[in-house]
UniProtKB/TrEMBL annotation:
Coiled-coil segments on the chain, per record: 53-80
UniProt KW keywords: Coiled coil
Organism from which the protein derives: Datura stramonium
Residue ranges of the region described as Disordered: 1-22
Superkingdom: Eukaryota
Name of the molecule in the record: Uncharacterized protein
Comp. bias intervals (Basic and acidic residues): 7-22
Length: 99
């Protein structure tokens, strides 16, 4: 490109307008690329969080099943002890007597 200068040594308005326009376009292009990258990263993060949530919900269901099963066994053995006339002192009753 040929630089156009007027008598005062300043760039012509036509040349400056063209450079400002191309600079604006490049700036906007850069911002668009950055926004797309940020959007892609946010989408990936959301997907990972969703997968982690599903995994945690599955573990919670398993733990709940295990706890329920353990409580049923405890109740069964407590009844068995009662039927055999054997007294059992639970940890809860020991702790309540100390407080």
């Amino acid at each position: 490109m040929i630089a156009e200068e007027n008598a005062d040594g300043k760039w012509s308005e036509k040349k400056m307008g063209k450079e400002d326009g191309s600079r604006t376009v490049e700036c906007l292009r850069g911002r668009l690329i950055a926004e797309r990258a940020a959007s892609r990263k946010a989408k990936e993060d959301a997907q990972l969080m969703g997968n982690k949530l599903i995994e945690l919900e599955t573990k919670l269901r398993e733990e709940t099943r295990s706890r329920n099963k353990a409580e049923k066994k405890l109740n069964f053995f407590m009844k068995k002890l009662e039927s055999m006339n054997i007294s059992y002192v639970s940890d809860e009753s020991e702790h309540s007597s100390f407080t």
